[in-house]
Amino acid sequence: MTIFGPAIDVRPLFPRERQALLDLLRALGPGDWSKETICPGWDVHDIAGHVLNDYLRRLSGSRDGYPGAVFADDETLPAYLARTNGEFVAATRQLSPRVLIELLEHLGPRLDAVWAAHDLEAPAGLNVSWAASDVDSPAWLDIGREYTEFWVHQQQIRDAVAMPGATQPELMAPVPYLFARALPHTLRTIERPEGTSAELEVLGPAGGRWSAVRRDGRWRLAEAAGEPAARVSMDQDVFWRLASRGITVAEARERSTSSGDPELTAAMTTLLAVVA
User: Fold this and answer.
1) Distance CA 103, CA 107 (A)
2) In whole angstroms, what is the distance from residue 223 CA to residue 188 CA?
3) Can you tell me the distance from the alpha carbon of 183 to that of 1, in angstroms, rounded to the nearest whole number?
4) Angstrom distance (rounded) from CA 102 to CA 95
5) Burial environment of residue 52 by CB neighbours within 10 A (0 to 12, 13 to 18, 19 or more)
6) Is residue 78 over pLDDT 90?
7) pLDDT tens-digit profile of 235-246?
8) How confident is the model at residue 276 (pLDDT cuts 50, 70, 90)?
9) What percent of the chain has pLDDT over 90?
10) Containing H/E element for 22?
11) What is the set of domains in the chain, with CATH numbers?
């Protein structure tokens, strides 16, 4: 039994999400590019540069097999990513907004082609550590993780410039679906009897309902049987922001409802779908 639940194929959505991003960036005024975002120390220009880094990193690694930057001595994965992401963003500050847009437009379809060549059920090019640290990820989860990365960064730009969008259910629905894959990992340290379930409900047109069930000594995404031991419900906007560090755990708890096992509900409202 898989711990990740049913596969999802987000590959057809990459061009649509990217077009929404390009339309957004082209609509920005000169002053918009320097507006601060939720990402500490990064403005709108920096977020766009970071997305470009993601494109280049996956093309170089997943398509070309190039290892890229090496880890420093005793450097953790979060520290490595913070360092290398910061180095690239600092370099892209030399690029004009027009050049950033042209590079994203040029490289995006090449990355789409990389994903199109993947067998979704094959092993991932990069494991999704926030979904499981001891089980290899399938390719569909790795590709989906990249989609959530691009979508969230677009929303961070939209928040900074007060231009909402890209929240149509067809574009947004994969994000909570994929972020919910973090639920079993979130509960991993909590022991409960076999068959215990915890239900997460995300409200809104792009939402859904998912259960983590204790099976064979670990939590798995599966259909729950009977009443869950714990239930947490929150709006889709609250959920994606919680999962991507856009709001604090305390803010998420204030804007959600919980019932049942307090240890399980407390853990569920700490869910992170980013490397931490």
Assistant:
1) 6
2) 18
3) 16
4) 11
5) buried
6) no
7) 999 999 999 999
8) low
9) 90
10) helix 14-27
11) 11-122+133-162 (1.20.120.450), 179-268 (3.30.1050.10)
